[in-house]
Amino acid sequence: MQWLCQEIYRAIALVMTLSKSDKKIEFMIVKNHLGEYISSDFFQSYLMMTSLIGSVSKVRSLWNRSPSETISIQPIQTRPSSINGVGNLRAIAALGEKIAWVGGTEGKIAKTEDGGATWTLCSLPYEKDLDVRALSLMNPKVACAMCAGPGDKKLSRIYRTVDGGRGWNLVLCPDMKGVFFNAMVFWNDRQGIVLSDPVGSRFALFRTENGGETWERIIPIEMPFAMPGENAFAASNSSLAVQGKENVWFATGGGASARVFYSCDGGRSWGVAATPMKINSVSAGIFSLAFLNEKLGIAVGGDHKLKTSFPSPNILITRDGGRNWEIFHDEDLSGKYLSSVAWRSEDSVKVVDGSKEIFNAVAFSETTGWAVGPNQAWAKI
Fold first, then answer.
1. In terms of CB atoms within 10 Å, which of 145, 201, 223, 262 comes out highest?
2. Contact (Cβ atoms closer than 8 angstroms) between residue 88 and residue 104
3. Cα dist. 63→28, 49, 357, 361 in Å?
């Protein structure tokens, strides 16, 4: 029994399900390293119940389940609806089950305040080449919109509204070769971060401390160089992820292998981890990642040109905050281009199967999921 007690005291939390009908206890590893230790007295209580299980060997076999057996990953099957006048949608932000904003091509943005029953346009000032790839809502009135495109053409931009989208102010537009905004996320309603492709030899990031009113480029104390051809993807505003107060990660592709950069100080210093996803195309890599907590994360990707025949693993999982990644096996999704992933609950993940070209991105606010895609498509999950 000592081995199991030691595992528990390595900060791995357990979830117990008791079936009254057959008196079986099943342990599932669905949360890792949360810093919530199970007391020895509580653990002894579990040992007293082993008669309900039959043998310690069964506990051991359940404990040693792979992530593929303890986390359910499901593609979105919901039938899409459409919003008139918004084009190809990739940006989604929501506040609960009623309020959501979506964004897409030509700077088009729409919002709903009644759960999708009606939508109102609140677009950016019209420019044909503006492509809204990210939205962040601080409250129903204050929001930021990120556009992706070459920086030297001034197409990577951030706009901000304080009146629910009736008016927009341009707050960031770096005129720099190499800049290409990929994602924008916020830790809270004041602090946010934006990821760009490399400028020179390193990825560029910008940060706000006042809800997007002003932005400054982060000059990291330490950051690994980008590999030749390495870049991030702007497919679903999820190549960048934040958690807690200052944890942040971003994922890459285009180089020799997909990598994940990680920082625990808000982007001031960075480390990088290689992954088992090997690639040989600028159109391949990790497109999306999401973290349940500071340790447990999932990453998905593939090749957006080879939509169903990606030869490398396309789903990865980490148990140590992105320092190490292992393959997550799913036969139904193997080889497919997966553009977006989001945690629905502690043991359930929703993923966008981009090979079907129905949706581009998925996001959850509380327990409500929202998805957007081509041809003005949206769905509530």
1. 145
2. yes
3. 7, 16, 38, 33
Cα(320)–Cα(42) distance, integer angstroms: 25
| Residue 268 or residue 36, greater confidence | 268
Cα 143 to chain center, whole Å? Answer: 19
Condensed to tens digits (0 to 9), the pLDDT of residues 221-265 reads: 999 999 999 999 999 999 999 999 999 999 999 988 999 999 999
Residue 311, by phi and psi: left (phi above 0), alpha (psi -120 to 50) or beta? alpha
Please give the structure tokens belonging to residue 208.
Answer: 């706000």
Report the C-alpha gap between 2 and 351 in whole angstroms.
38
Q: Which two tokens stand for residue 154?
A: 């001034």
Q: To the nearest 10°, the Cα dihedral for 370, 371, 372, 378?
A: -70
| Separation of alpha carbons 244 and 257, rounded Å | 28
How does DSSP classify residue 329? Answer: P
Contacts for 112-121 with beta carbons within 8 Å, 24 or more apart?
Answer: 113/140, 115/380, 116/81, 116/378, 116/380, 119/83, 119/84, 121/85, 121/86
Torsion sign over Cα 350, 356, 361, 364 = negative
Overall size of the chain counted in residues: 381
Q: What would the pLDDT profile of 111-125 be if each residue is shown by its tens digit?
A: 999 999 999 999 999
Task: Check if the beta carbon of residue 213 is closer than 8 Å to that of residue 206.
Answer: no
pTM across the whole model: 0.83
DSSP symbols for 6-52: HHHTTTEEEEEEEETTTTEEEEEEEEE--S-PPPHHHHHHHHHTGGG
Q: Class of the 72-380 domain?
A: mainly beta
DSSP 355: G
DSSP H/E element including 371: strand 368-373
DSSP helix/strand/coil, 354: helix
Return the H-helix or E-strand segment holding 68: helix 67-70
Question: How many angstroms separate the CA atoms of 55 and 289, rounded?
Answer: 38
Domain ranges of the chain: 2-65, 72-380
pLDDT averaged over every residue in the chain = 86
Distances 43 to 13, 46, 48, 315 between C-alpha atoms, Å: 12, 5, 9, 33
Helix (H) or strand (E) holding 62: helix 56-63
